[in-house]
Amino acid sequence: MTQNKIINFKNLFLFIKRYLFLNKNTLAVAFGAVSGTIFLILMFAAYQTKSLNSDILFSTVMPFFFLGGLIFTSSSFKELHDPKTSYSFLTFPISTFEKLSGIWLSTSVLFSIVSIVIIYIINILASVLFSQLFNFQLHIDNIFTLQLFSEVGKYIVIQSIFLLGAIYFRKNNFLKTILAISVIFIVFAILTGLAGRIMFNDFIIPHNFNFNSNGVSIEHQSMFSNTIPQILNFTFWYLLTPFFLIVSYFRLKERQI
Fold it and tell me: pTM (2 decimals)?
């Protein structure tokens, strides 16, 4: 039985194929509309600046990439939450891990790959067309830079949060996930501020929250400038995605039972 296996790649492939087939019309319209919008924005930018480079391209494309991907992710489990289709989804003969893996791969890795291909095509077409329309020298920038892959990496990390929101919330998943993130961030900021006020009270100027660095030991200065940023950076890049995927798995597992 496939349910006794951790993952069956044939079943995983079939599930991804099924998932993309069910969403093909929505994805085609969305990618087409967004691509057209980006092209028009780039045309206006090229007309204003008389040039088209990777900085203009990325500043135009990335907001659409993030917003589109996160909205797509937030709706990825609509079949699970719809009473008319939930039975079909829950009884599909693959494991919970395979279902989660299939949808995660579709909304993170495959979405990113397709988006990069579209960005690459837009970059070439826009550069050629604009050089003819606005009479400037044809130059096609290389988009496969560290900046691009860094942005894709950030998307995959943040996307895992919205994947959990897609499973946890039944309606308005995108907005509710943003609200939940905002509330958690505000609570965390307040608790961190209060903890800092208590722990470093001797270095805080009375009657306000200004920090007086005079008298702070070298060890504490190193902790604030090096250790804490390194911990936060490591947590963001290497711990957040596994954490939210694990939580998503157990949340989806509850629905399977």
Answer: 0.89
